[in-house]
Design a protein that fits this description.
By secondary structure, this protein is an alpha+beta fold. It has two domains: 1-56; 61-181, Sandwich (Immunoglobulin-like), CATH 2.60.40.3880. 36% of the residues lie in helices and 37% in strands. The chain has a five-stranded mixed β-sheet. A four-stranded antiparallel β-sheet has the order 1-3-7-5, with helices on one face. It is flat. The relative contact order is 0.18.
Length: 182
């Protein structure tokens, strides 16, 4: 009797292991397909955003901020990215230019309106506050300034400037506003 029970137990165990491995493999294939699909979607959206930014450039436009009405409405404790582009309009040269950009608060009465200083507001910028790029003539540089608005941030609107220099000479300036929402 004991041997029969032992055999039934081991066969049941083998069946459970085989079913568990099958489910594990199917689950891994499903997760892989989901991640591949989502990464393809992100790349496709990135290409479409670059295409839309390129459409915004007019012949003499050196920078473009990709926002409707130049305003980003960001809720407290929300991560948000603002896309922009710089184009090198140099003519008659084949050499690439060395560009630098800085994103700064450009609102003289921000302390009155919001009750906090410029440095505190600039700390909302998580990445992309400043960077360097080498851009060939007629080419574009695409960047994103990422904001993370703290939960205790005041509900107000702040103006930011993107100041661009080319080979250490002022090149272009553009602006956008950030409106903090609850």
């Amino acid at each position: 009797m004991k041997k029969k029970g032992a055999i039934e137990l081991s066969i049941g165990t083998i069946v459970i292991i085989v079913l568990a491995m099958s489910m594990l493999i199917l689950g891994m294939v499903l997760v892989k397909n989901i991640f591949e699909g989502s990464s393809d979607n992100v790349l496709q959206m990135n290409d479409k955003v670059k295409g839309e930014i390129n459409k915004l450039f007019v012949e003499d436009k050196r920078t473009v901020v990709y926002l409707s009405n130049q305003i980003a409405k960001i809720e407290q404790n929300e991560d948000w990215g603002i896309a922009f582009a710089i184009t090198n309009l140099a003519k008659g040269t084949a050499e690439a230019g060395r560009f630098h950009y800085d994103v700064t608060v450009s609102d003289p009465d921000v302390r009155q309106k919001c009750g906090i200083g410029e440095r505190d507001i600039e700390s909302w910028i998580k990445t992309g506050r400043a960077d360097d790029a080498v851009i060939a003539p007629g080419q574009n540089y695409f960047g994103i300034v990422r904001f993370l608005i703290p939960e205790n941030a005041p509900l107000c609107t702040v103006r930011f400037h993107i100041d661009v220099t080319a080979d250490n000479v002022a090149y272009a300036t553009d602006f956008f506003d950030v409106e903090v929402l609850a």
